[in-house]
TrEMBL record:
<dbReference type="Pfam" id="PF01218">
    <property type="entry name" value="Coprogen_oxidas"/>
</dbReference>
<dbReference type="InterPro" id="IPR036406">
    <property type="entry name" value="Coprogen_oxidase_aer_sf"/>
</dbReference>
<dbReference type="GO" id="GO:0004109">
    <property type="term" value="F:coproporphyrinogen oxidase activity"/>
</dbReference>
<protein>
    <submittedName>
        <fullName>Uncharacterized protein</fullName>
    </submittedName>
</protein>
<dbReference type="GO" id="GO:0006779">
    <property type="term" value="P:porphyrin-containing compound biosynthetic process"/>
</dbReference>
<dbReference type="InterPro" id="IPR001260">
    <property type="entry name" value="Coprogen_oxidase_aer"/>
</dbReference>
């Protein structure tokens, strides 16, 4: 899976970036339900393990600065290269609305 992710990863300003907003699917049929259910079950199992393992880790200004940098690069990439965001903007969605549900604007 790691190799597959690398192959589809984006390189923006020398950094790996990409959308972490979710998986979008259109025109789903009932036959797709089991696949997406299994994917969601796996995601929550893995993600809860990561949270349990890291929830007590300390962080400081270095980690905060890194997070701000990566979020900034993600916001730039989203406005310049992300096909889903660009589609929405072309359809008239205000650019800032595409970032509304992210921690970038909070």
């Amino acid at each position: 899976m790691k190799e597959l992710c690398k192959r589809h990863g984006k390189d923006y300003k020398g950094e790996k970036v990409g959308s972490y907003a979710g998986i979008y699917s259109f025109k789903l049929d009932e036959k797709d339900f089991e696949f997406f259910k299994n994917m969601a079950d796996t995601y929550f199992k893995v993600y809860s393990g990561i949270i349990d393992r890291r929830k007590n880790e300390k962080f400081g200004q270095k980690e905060i600065d890194h997070k701000l940098k990566t979020h900034g690069l993600w916001a730039e990439w989203t406005m310049i290269e992300d096909e889903g965001t660009l589609f929405g903007i072309r359809k008239g969605i205000p650019p800032l609305a595409t970032l509304y549900d992210t921690k970038v604007l909070r």
